[in-house]
Amino acid sequence: MAHSALLVMDVQRGIVNRFEDAGYLPRLRGAIDAGRAAGVPVIYVVIGFRTGHPEISARNKSFSAITHTGAFAEGDAGAEIHPDVAPRPGDIVVTKKRVSAFAGSDLDVVLRAGEIDSLVLTGIATSGVVLSTLRQAADLDFGLTVLADGCLDPDPEVHRVLTGKVFPRQADVVTVDEWVMAVGR
């Protein structure tokens, strides 16, 4: 039988605040609560850097713009996990240094130690952390599920194409409600 974990990725104040979907955090909270009730480990993945961003190269187009702002560095309130979906004691928080949840983190070590072989992916953004993590996790032979409405993207069309056409090649794509019903059985 597969041992699954729910990944809640990049749901940090500075990222969540860029979106106006009032239903997102309650949906995500529903998935988190259902996962916990079913004994599914909840693992939070956050982007985080040291003060001064020494991990970011000037050649990195995705991250070099934040090196002058202090964003997502130690002490930045925007780097905190949004309080509506905050971790509880016993939840694991993994800090990554790039887009994929695996890049610059100890996520793979945590998953292997917990004998996790299947991942349920949620997070912001669909075209960022979710896509990158899905691709890397598929290459690492994890079973994959994506909660389509447990993900957000600044471009609704990109989200639609990824969840409707790209992700199904490597993952089961379901809604939060469908997954909650499945894990509640």
Automatic annotation (TrEMBL):
Top-rank lineage group of the source organism: Bacteria
GO molecular function: hydrolase activity
Keyword Hydrolase belongs to the record: yes
Family annotation (Pfam families): Isochorismatase
Entries under CDD domains matching the protein: cysteine_hydrolases
Keywords: Hydrolase
Record-annotated Isochorismatase-like domain positions: 4-178
Name of the protein this chain belongs to: Cysteine hydrolase
Organism of provenance: Pseudonocardia acidicola
